Task: structure prediction
Amino acid sequence: MPVPAAPKKGKQKKGKKAVEKTGAPRTARKDAARRKKKKTVRSQKTTTSSIGLPVGYGSAADLVLGCIEEGGGEGLSVGELSDITGIPAKQLYPLLQRLKNQGRAHRLSRGIYCLCP
Result:
């Protein structure tokens, strides 16, 4: 009676990867997978905005402008605005830049902002 051969040790040769039933090229399959990933459903109503502020209390820009207005005429630094509003300084810079471009805020010196007259 013959003895079955022991399995071979070492690397086994890799065969061709299985192609999906569509037979589409690999790049087309990757694109389809990317499109599927992007179709995530976002919740309709959230209680906080992207920067952690409660929704319904005005925009972050209005909050920042209100803080600058209450700060008096001397202006506030980005650090002070961050402490008052609770918005991280990293997210305040583009917000202040947009307010400056719209003409609603004025930059006195590096990092010090006040309301436009």
